Amino acid sequence: MNTATTNRAGHPLDPYLRTERMPHIWCSGCGLGLVVNCFLRGLIQSRLALDKVVVVSGIGCAGRAAGYINLDSFHTTHGRAIPFATGLKLANPELKVVVISGDGDLTAIGGNHFIHAARRNVDITVLCINNFIYGMTGGQVGPTTPLTARTTTSVGGNIDQPFNIPYLAAASGAAYVARWTTAQVIRLQKSITEALLKNGFSLIEIITPCPTYYGRMNKQRTGLEQMKYYRDNSIVKSGIDPKHAGIEFNGPIIVGRFVD
Amino acid sequence: MTERKYLAGEFFMSGDDACAEGAISAGCRFFAGYPITPASEIAERMSERLPEVAGTYIQMEDELASLAAVLGASWGGVKAMTATSGPGFSLMMENLGLGIMTETPCVIVDVQRGSPSTGLPTLTGQGDMMQARWGSHGSYSIIALSPDSPQELYDLTIRAFNLSEKYRLPVLVMTEAATGHMYEKVVIPPMNEIEVVHRRKPAVSAGEYLPFKPDADLVPPMANAGEGYRVHITGLTHDERGYPAMTAEAQDRLVRRLVDKIERNRDDIIDLEEDRIDGAEVVVCSYGISARVSRIAVEQARSEGIRVGMLRLITVWPFPEDRIRDISEQVRAFVVPEINYGQISLEVERCACGRTKTVLVPHMGGGVHSPGTILEVIKQVAR
Lengths: 260, 383
Ligand SMILES: Cc1ncc(C[n+]2csc(CCOP(=O)(O)OP(=O)(O)O)c2C)c(N)n1
Ligand code: SF4
Fold this sequence. Notes:
Chain A is about 35% helix and about 15% strand. Chain A has helices at about 30-45, 65-70, 80-90, 105-110, 110-120, 165-170, 185-195, 210-215, 225-235, and strands at about 55, 70-75, 95-100, 125-130, 175-180, 200-205, 235, 255-260. Chain A is globular. Chain B is an alpha/beta fold. Chain B contains 15 helices and 16 strands. Chain B has helices at about 1-5, 15-25, 40-50, 65-75, 85-90, 95-100, 130-135, 150-165, 175-180, 250-265, 265-270, 290-305, 320-330, 345-350, 370-380, and strands at about 10-15, 30-35, 55-60, 80-85, 105-115, 120-125, 145, 170-175, 185-190, 230-235, 270-275, 280-285, 310-315, 315, 335-340, 355-360. In chain B, the strands form 3 sheets. In chain B, strands 2, 3, 4, 5, 6, 7, 8 and 14 form an 8-stranded mixed β-sheet that branches. A 5-stranded mixed β-sheet of chain B has the order 11-13-12-15-16, sandwiched between helices. In chain B, strands 1-9 form a two-stranded antiparallel ribbon. The interface between A and B is large, with 34 and 43 residues. Thiamine diphosphate (TPP) binds next to helix 4 of chain A.
């Protein structure tokens, strides 16, 4: 990771950000900024009372999102954002509780919490940011790394089957399930608004570039190259059984709203 | 709403049930837990009682989630608790650290059983006392209370909530199977006679509020989520705004304060029961069920003409260092019965610092000491 410097004069989303914390820690070309941008726009569109919206993150690059958003926000322990959010929501049902965290955080160390929150249909929204890798710790293989993809702990290619996150969420009982990439910003924003307004457990998987690790190790060196791959290979298939939305290395990415 | 369902009067009750009632009396309205012997009865009673007082019970998927949910609930503005035993207590160490770092009031009850590992699920132990002190990584201070009866489980659960709200940290009630499963008379006073403490709220507007700027007692006022303060709360080292601050200076400031807010308020936190320590040649120092058994041995020793004092640690952490030091000047030995292979005895020995002998009377767990065993040791050291 590095420290990006940006010219932030008068950005329309400034009131929703902790601008005093800029520059953020994310690498240039990282997709996490886009995700925050889409989240804020989706949130504004939802017209929810901002003082009652809370963001909870786990640990990781994605987990840092909580710290940049100007709402009540909690940066918890690795994998435990969902149970923390569950307690928060049950204690004060007036709150809209949103979990923003990484795929490793939510489906590896926090995988058990993920399926149980979906099973209980707890009224929270989860944005699972999938960069196919553990970013924060230096690009190790994770539970979503496609078969044969290279990482710092699978230099010869990943030998383990990855999770299909929408399928996992749907099978566990989620009320709303969607997947988008950062190349479909308008659809993503709209989906975020829908998820926020949905009662019950809503999940959006957001496929997001990590040029520093996943890209560099898999011949997509820049964020832009990763975005091009998403744009050229995303296939919108809303309404299909997410069972058929598995992701293969450099293959098509099926996106859409699968459960509502 | 709560009046009707508030119990007051005399009851014949188990320690676990008394603990749950203490929580209700203290204003606890959220419980998240995972079943485990010998603590399950606390969860069972809470699952029944909380809906009666407009509270929430949730059974989580494990103890990692249980404590995470409790921390979340506390930030939601509701007093929250979980209860477990050794294996679950081990799993809670991660989020205990988060609770310490984010200064989150809550109560964790550990009904100790025979250990290590799965050990003796249904039988008693006191093997988690050092884990209570040091179990999560890093330097911090903790508050742990040790009741010796169902009545005290009721009383100390209330006190645990009050201390947690006052000092903003998870407070531990370290009981054991023998006390949790013991049935005895428990007196629950009328609601208006119970002192209940609430977290201090910010006295300034959202724009001026610094979530981790302490008051004179080193404790920062706490804004809950949803109150418009837009707090950021992190387990990372943070500054007074709550923002990550990755420097040795920020670390020094924060960690010192987290420790000092407890250590400087020891007089308020530490509660001891003393019996005939002046003029004693031997002092038995114990806690929980072991203190109860020790009392019998102490009486017997006295009837045999030995001058024995008794020091019962009601607050185990922070450890009553000064008092142990004072006593060590005047006695020939401390005798420390506990149901483990030496934990609190090490603290007594540390504070006695060679001025007097410290003799551990260990029990590996699965039962309590026989008073005769403790008496024997008292006699040996008194000779
Ligand atoms: C209990 C624990 N184990 C390991 C870590 C180290 N760790 C920090 S972030 C992280 C992985 C994060 O990966 P992911 O959730 O995919 O988020 P990303 O950084 O890729 O956005 C790990 C393993 C930790 N903080 N806590
Ligand atoms: S996810 Fe990857 S690109 Fe983004 S900040 Fe982390 S390491 Fe950098």
